[in-house]
Amino acid sequence: MNTLLRWFASGPDAPPLRDARETDRLYVRYRWAVMLSITVGYGIAYTCRLGLSVVKKDLIDADIFTAAELGIIGSGWAVAYAFGKLVNGFLADHANLKKFWPTGVLLSALINIAMGWSAWLWAWVALWAVNAWFQGFGAPAGIVALSQWFSNRERGTYYGVWSTAHSVGEGLTFIGSSALVVWLGWRGGLVGPGTICVVVALLLFVFMKDRPQTLGLPSVADWKNDHGAQLSPSSSRTTWQMQFSILRMPAVWVLAFACATMTMTRYAMNSWGMLYLQETKGYSTLGAGGLLALNPLAGIAGCVLFGLASDKLFGSRRPPMNLICGLVELLALGIMFFSPPGHPLLLVLAFLLYGLSINGLITSLGGLFGADIVPKKAVGAVMGFIGVFSYCGVAVQERISGWLIQRGTTFVEGVRHYDFSAAVAFWLGASVVSLILATSLWRVKVSD
Predict the structure, then answer these.
(1) Do residues 48 and 109 lie in contact, with contact meaning Cβ atoms separated by under 8 Å?
(2) Which of 130, 78, 138 is nearest to 103 (CA)?
(3) Looking at residue 353, what is its pLDDT?
(4) How many structural domains comprise the chain?
(5) What is the CATH number of the domain that holds 74?
């Protein structure tokens, strides 16, 4: 175990380069490599976490699993992801991301491939949970890489760009994986993304980079002369001490609960949205997948706009944009759930608004806001801490949603009919609670 931890640990600082022009050239080159690795790589790797959402109807219709059993599988994934993100968040602050991040992608991909050849409930519960642990390498690796390679004044803008990765991943899943399911059956929705992600992992081993100092470069704060949010030079706290100091910050706890309740609604739509659209609005698999793909499509713009607007319009303050996004999200959900069937353009508008707003909230509550208010060397830890609350919330959501949907299922002349009204009330309530909690942090200040 010690050998393994040493292999994953960040490398020693290399002798510093003396040539300023060479330093600038390498910084620009490596920043591009890191940004592409954490954004494009994370986006594609995301397809290995959402495959279950696409194949649910096929699994239910084939009597392989019930909705309640799928809720158990999804709940196990969420618990494992929560604690995986917590542990991996603390580790990422110490890790060589060139090794840490690609390893998670590779192991997740292999598990997806293995699941395509099994249909035993408890094997799926176990494998999907292990998959979640390795998926939990991605977000902490991304935020730590951003803190290592991009300075404080760039944080919101570049974080917004990186946050588009999950939108790209959701879009690839709902369109690409849906097409694979139609073409190859439910197994294609797991084996296909897994095979692609094996190749992605190998590319990440090539292009991802460790800390700048391990390559002979100065810290990004020195290179950009941007020390505004650094700790005082007199501080002698270790990385571990700074990580555990976040537990004494009330704002971090409120932020964690706000993110948890927001994530409940987000994953309810990701996990059960296909089934909801197919059964209540009459969409086909491809039609429902295409409509859900509008969410991440708009989400790309939502992530970037949130970062830019909070930086440029509100002086790098996140709460004003949190309030705007929360209200727009509730409007979009109201249209989705209460508009009658037969109004496709109205649903298109709702999903576009939802994508813009929910992805803005993911950008802020899921990491950016936390990175603003904690020491830089604890950004991985705060991402993990918030994550454990968020995905425990997802686990609760999966069990409750699965149970409510199962309870609302009836058979008429051998045909399943679904009543989603109780589940919809639960999903809307979670968003309202999240908005109230996030707004309560209006006066929280950025860490020095």
Answers:
(1) yes
(2) 138
(3) 95
(4) 1
(5) 1.20.1250.20
